[in-house]
Give the backbone structure.
Amino acid sequence: MIGKLSLKNLAGKPGRTAAMVLLAMFLSFSIFAGSLTVLSLQQGLNGLEARLGADIIVVPYEATTKFDVKSMLLQGNPGYFYLNRSFADKVATRPGVEATSCQLYLASVSAGCCSVAVQLIGFDPESDFTILPWAQETYHGEIGFGDVLVGSDISVPTDGVLRFFDVDCRVVAQLAKTGSALDTAVYANMETIQALIEASQAKGLNQYNDISADEVVSSVLVRVAEGYDVESVKNDINLHVRKVVAVRASNMISTIADNLTGVSRLIGAFIAAIWVLSLVIMMIALTMLMNERRREFAILRVMGASRRKLAGLVMAESALTNLLGGAAGVALAALVVFPFSGVIEARLGLPFVLPGGGRVLALALGSLAACLAAGAAISAVCAARISRIDTSLILREGN
Amino acid sequence: MLRAEGISKNYYRKRDGSNVFTAVQPTDFELPEGQVTEITGRSGSGKSTLLNLLAGLLAPSTGKVWLDDADLYALPDGALSRLRNRRVGVIPQGQSGLHSLTVLENVLLPARLYGRGPVPEARARQLLERMGIADLADVRPGDLSGGEMRRMAIARALILEPSVVLADEPTGDLDDGNTAAVLELLRDTARQGAAVLLVTHEAGAARYADAVYRMDSGRLTRE
Ligand SMILES: Nc1ncnc2c1ncn2[C@@H]1O[C@H](COP(=O)(O)OP(=O)(O)O)[C@@H](O)[C@H]1O
Ligand SMILES: [Mg+2]
């Protein structure tokens, strides 16, 4: 009965109902959109961290002033400095170094496949421990000449062939999303990279001067053996291998982590502000509404509605508007965050990876629940107040 | 049926130096079943206050109100409310339509408040018929005149065939024809066994009453 009456009350005053629905919408929209963004940024950072896959990254000394991992990861602009392979071998012999893998960055190229320039990266499939684990459909085969692995943002043609400088490359696997410039990277073995360099020279583009993929590398990724302290291994490399600088991978992304903390705080403050404002307005609106409806409640009392029934009516009405507004807010947030995640990523300049469906659903339900709980708390205060009305006094007021 | 023992009501406010104002002087009072009991008196003499005391809507300063053997103000709110719903039909002063419901829904609301079974729609339509507003069943109270709304409130108070009817100036804004119809309906309700209290200014109402009381500055006397 209370349910039907509350529905009729809501339908009878569409303007009033819409205002209450809107307030609930602010609550659920802000918390869902905000937390989804923060979670996506967190995922992006975690992914990046995992994706670097190395404890230490060794780069040429000249690179340190210009090499910026953030710009490499987010703008795909690593800075092009090269280091003789012999240094990589030296790094590999240092105590505590369990494994090393070299990578060679080429200047980014525009390719027919992609709207943005892609980053060509050479790697050693035999020693690699940072790229192959991220192949989406685990790729077990060989990475032979002309085979490439591509980032998640590269659209692979149906025949699986990408052309760079007229060299056909066969896409053998696509990598999981990182929310960074690595998503537009193309990885090939050193032989293939060498062929690409030569092809570009043959075409007169001469993009890469005379570097030789057999002799130089851009970075050496190091995995530290168990039982060794990453910091000490880093210091040891810096002390004993000349012309290179070893950097802890976690330090390299610490600027990203710092930015993320800042952005998360900002979003948190934003959510808090919207909540405080919405809840205060909701409280004021409900109080005014209850005041305006005093006579209506007094009439219900005259007919024999108990105080509990009145409170139940108030609670049922706000539960309905909060449910409606809460669901609409969640839906709207999804409509904003999902299609515009690329824009958000570009705006914030931080890696952004949407969490999986299950987590999104849990977050949506959690946001809705938070909105319902807050709304219920507010209306409980008003319901308690309205249930204590002095019926005979209110009846007098009508005359 | 409905009995009051030594009930009185004091309001606390500034008046004549003293801040206690007695709206109803201590009195014993009874509404016998099958009878219409009328209370007349000047405006502000305490009639509505007494009616609210009897309805279980306003706790008395002293005394008790009994409905059969239930001490109304000793009951918890839930039980008192249910008792009022089932057994007491109150026609309050002033307008009392719920605007989100139609006239028919308004009249049926007391039956829906606790009941789960079918609602007495036939009785509702019959009461509306008797009140001359059957054609307004699907209209909302906002579109009714004051008199029409009042007659709706009367139909609503009688919908569950209450054993006590408390009517506070039920003919206040009615023309002569409708006044007679309402008074006759109350009279018939009493004939069917209800105890009816009629608070009114209406000079001709005494014809329908079995007993007439006068309220004078909170003092109730039988005429
Ligand atoms: N809640 C209240 N607080 C203070 N005074 C009240 C209150 N209710 C009624 N009164 C006073 O009690 C007196 C009786 O009021 P009421 O019972 O409404 O009279 P009647 O119905 O006979 O016109 C009036 O003087 C009125 O001002
Ligand atoms: Mg009165």
